[in-house]
Write a structure and sequence with these properties.
The complex is a heterodimer of chains A (309) and B (262).
Chain A: H1 2-8, E1 30-35, H2 41-48, H3 71-75, E2 77-81, H4 93-104, H5 108-122, H6 137-149, E3 155-159, H7 167-184, E4 187-191, H8 195-201, E5 204-209, E6 212-218, H9 219-226, E7 229-236, H10 239-248, E8 255-259, E9 262-268, H11 272-282, E10 285-292, H12 295-304
Parallel strand pairs in A: 1-4, 1-5, 2-3, 3-4
Antiparallel strand pairs in A: 5-6, 7-9, 7-10, 8-9
Helix pairs in contact in A: 4-6, 9-12
Chain B: H1 2-19, H2 23-48, H3 59-93, H4 96-100, H5 106-112, H6 120-135, H7 143-168, H8 171-174, H9 181-187, H10 200-209, H11 217-224, H12 229-256
Classes of the chains: A alpha/beta (309), B mainly alpha (262).
C-alpha cells in the first residue's frame, strides 16, 4: 500500500552530501580523506575531478573550475577508483594503454618508457598482454594504476585504491604510491577506509562526517589533540610479579588488564610517564612498549562525538 | 578530427579482437537478418499485389526504398546499436565517470565506443543489396544523384541514431533501465514506411519533429524522382535541428549526471 501511495504522495528529505565545507590543498601535498560510508568523501572526489556539479560553492583545482571539464585540466589529472575499472575487461591491459596513449597524446618514446618503469616497479610486466578479466584483483589494481599514471598527472584522486586486496597486494600498492610520489611529486587526494593506507601515506588528513569537515590537520596533531590516553604493554618476568601488579596498580594511573605475564595499561596521556615509572620500579620486566592510541580508534571517537565541529 | 579517427581505429581493433572469440555469432546474425530482409520484401510485395502505386512509388522504386532502410538498419546495428544499448547502463552504474575525466568528448565515447564487428557482414550484405537494386532499376539513375544519395543515407543513419538518443538521454533524470528507448522502438518502424502514405499533421511530425521520413524515404525520393533540391534543404534543416537538440540535451544531461555511489 505504501509503495502505491508513494506514486502520488511522496515525502522528500533534502540531504546535503557536502555542506559548509572548505579545503585548501597545496601543490604536491598528499591528503587522506576519512569518514564513514556516506560521509561525502567520494562526492568530494567527484566534484574535484569534475564528474559531478555541486549545487553551490566554488572549487578551483590548478586554477581550473573542474566541471568546466577543460581538456587542459583533464590532461593533468587522474582518477583511480578501486571499485571501478577503466581498462576494457575483455582486452589485455596493453590495448587499453594504447588507447590512453592516443587520448592523452603521449609521445611513443615517453609512453613505452613509462610502461616499462611502472610495470617493472609493480611487477606486472608479464600480465600486460593478458585479458584484464583473467587477472587477479591485485594485478588488476596494479594495471589500473599504470593506466591512471601513464600521462604523468599533476593531481591524482585515489578512491579506495587497496579495497579488497590481500595484505601483500595492499602493501605493494602502498609502497608503489609512496615511491611514485617521491619521484614525481603529484598532489594526491586519497580516500580509504584502511588506516594502514592513511598512516603510511598521508601526513595530513581530513575527516568528514555527514558532509561536514570535523578535522583537518596532521596525523601527529590528531594524536595530540584527540588521543587522551596512551597504551603501555609489557611482559613481566614472573607470575608473582604479574599477580602483584594486577592487584596493586593505582587506578589513578590507568586501567590495567592482562594474562599470562602480559599486561596492557590504558593510561591518561599526562600520567604516562608516571605509570611507566611505577611499572619499572615495582616489577621485573622483560619487554616494554608505549604506544599512541591507534589512529582508527581516535577517528572512531571523533566520528562518534555528537555535534562536534 | 585525425585524433578522433585514430581513436576510432582503436575501437575497431578492440571490437574485432573481441568478436573473434564469438565467431559463431557472425553467421547466426547473417542468417537471422537475411530472414528479416526477406520478410520486408514479402510484406511490400503482398501490398503491391493489390495496388500498382503506394505512396506515389512503383514496386521498383519501393525496392530501392526497402534496400535503403535495410542499409540504415544495418549501419545502425554495426556502428551505434551496442552504444545505445549500453548508454543507460553506463549512466545508471556511474560508468560515465571515467569518460568525463578524459580529455576527449564524452559523447564521442558514448556514441562510438562499441563497434559491432559481428554485424559487419550484415552491413556488407545490405550495401550489396542496395547496389543491386540501384543498378537494376528500370530507369537509369544519374551518377551525381547516386553520390548525393549515398551521403543522404549516411546522414539518415546518423539521424536515426540521434533521434534514438533523444529518447535515451532522459535516463540522466529518470534513471530508468532504458530511458524512453522502448517508445522509440515502437515509433521507429515509421522510418520503414514511405513518406507518401502519411498525410496532414502526421506527415509534418515525421518530417520535422521526429524526422523518420528524412532517414530513408526522402533520400529515396531524391534518387528516384526528378531532381528536387528543396528535399536536400529540408533534410539539412531537419538534421541540424535534431543534432542541435541532442547537443543541448547532452549538455543538460551531463549537468544533471549524479554518477553512482561507490
Amino acid at each position: 500500500m505504501g509503495s502505491v501511495k508513494s506514486l502520488y504522495n511522496r515525502n522528500y528529505i533534502k540531504k546535503h552530501a557536502l555542506d559548509d565545507f572548505s579545503l585548501h590543498i597545496e601543490a604536491g601535498e598528499i591528503i587522506g580523506l576519512i569518514g564513514s560510508n556516506g560521509a561525502g568523501k567520494t562526492t568530494l572526489t567527484k566534484i574535484l575531478s569534475g564528474i559531478i556539479h555541486p549545487t553551490s560553492g566554488h572549487v578551483s583545482v590548478m586554477g581550473f573550475n573542474p566541471w568546466d571539464r577543460k581538456n587542459e585540466y583533464r590532461r593533468n589529472m587522474s582518477v583511480i577508483m578501486g571499485q571501478k575499472a577503466q581498462l576494457w575487461w575483455d582486452l589485455p591491459a596493453m590495448d587499453g594503454y594504447l588507447l590512453l596513449k592516443e587520448i592523452y597524446q603521449i609521445p611513443a618514446k615517453e609512453f613505452y618508457t613509462s610502461i616499462d618503469y611502472l610495470a617493472e616497479y609493480l611487477d606486472v610486466k608479464d600480465q600486460l598482454n593478458i585479458q584484464v578479466r583473467r587477472l587477479s584483483l591485485g594485478e588488476r589494481m596494479k594495471v589500473e594504476l599504470i593506466a591512471a599514471l601513464l600521462h604523468k598527472p599533476k593531481v591524482i584522486f585515489l578512491d579506495e585504491p587497496t579495497i579488497g586486496l590481500d595484505l601483500s597486494a595492499q602493501k605493494a600498492v602502498r609502497s608503489f604510491i609512496k615511491e611514485y610520489r617521491k619521484e614525481n611529486k603529484p598532489t594526491i587526494i586519497l580516500t580509504s577506509h584502511y588506516m594502514d593506507d592513511i598512516e603510511e601515506l598521508c601526513p595530513r588528513i581530513c575527516i568528514l562526517r555527514s558532509g561536514r569537515k570535523v578535522y583537518d590537520g596532521g596525523l601527529k596533531e590528531l594524536h595530540i589533540q584527540y588521543a587522551d590516553s596512551k597504551v603501555i604493554t609489557a611482559s613481566l618476568a614472573t607470575e608473582s610479579d604479574f599477580s602483584q601488579l594486577i592487584n596493586t596498580f593505582p587506578s589513578a594511573l590507568g586501567e590495567i588488564t592482562g594474562a599470562d605475564c602480559q599486561i596492557k595499561i590504558q593510561t591518561p596521556r599526562d600520567k604516562t610517564m608516571e605509570a611507566a615509572r611505577y611499572l619499572l620500579n615495582q616489577t621485573q620486566i622483560t619487554d616494554f612498549n608505549i604506544k599512541e592510541d591507534e589512529v582508527g580508534t581516535i577517528i572512531e571517537k571523533i566520528l562518534s562525538r555528537e555535534g562536534h565541529q | 578530427m585525425i585524433r578522433y579517427a585514430r581513436l576510432y581505429l582503436h575501437f575497431l581493433r578492440f571490437a574485432f579482437s573481441k568478436a573473434m572469440e564469438f565467431r559463431a555469432d557472425f553467421f547466426f546474425r547473417v542468417v537471422m537478418d537475411i530472414i528479416i530482409y526477406i520478410v520486408h520484401f514479402l510484406f511490400f510485395s503482398i501490398i503491391y499485389l493489390h495496388t500498382p502505386i503506394l505512396g506515389g512509388w512503383s514496386i521498383d522504386e519501393m525496392k530501392i526504398f526497402i534496400a535503403t532502410f535495410i542499409f540504415i538498419d544495418a549501419f545502425h546495428m554495426t556502428f551505434f546499436a551496442n552504444n545505445t544499448w549500453w548508454f543507460p547502463i553506463y549512466i545508471n552504474r556511474g560508468d560515465l565517470d571515467y569518460y568525463l575525466t578524459k580529455p576527449v568528448s564524452s559523447f564521442f565515447f558514448m556514441a562510438f565506443k562499441e563497434f559491432a564487428a559481428n554485424s559487419l557482414l550484415n552491413l556488407i550484405l545490405a550495401i550489396g543489396l542496395l547496389s543491386y537494386m540501384i543498378s537494376n532499376h528500370p530507369v537509369a539513375l544519374d551518377l551525381s544523384k547516386i553520390l548525393v544519395f549515398i551521403l543522404l543515407i549516411i546522414n539518415g543513419s546518423f539521424l536515426f541514431f540521434m533521434t534514438y538518443f533523444i529518447f535515451l538521454i532522459p535516463v540522466f533524470w529518470t534513471h530508468s533501465p532504458r530511458g524512453f528507448g522502448d517508445v522509440f522502438y515502437s515509433a521507429e518502424k515509421i522510418f520503414q514506411r514511405p513518406d507518401g502514405i502519411f498525410q496532414g499533421f502526421a506527415k509534418k511530425v515525421f518530417l520535422y519533429f521526429l524526422p523518420f521520413s528524412m532517414m530513408a524515404s526522402y533520400p529515396t525520393r531524391y534518387l528516384v524522382s526528378p531532381t528536387d533540391n528543396s528535399l536536400l534543404l529540408e533534410i539539412l534543416a531537419a538534421s541540424c535541428f535534431i543534432y542541435f537538440v541532442v547537443y543541448l540535451l547532452w549538455k543538460k544531461g551531463l549537468r544533471n549526471y549524479s554518477s553512482a555511489s561507490s
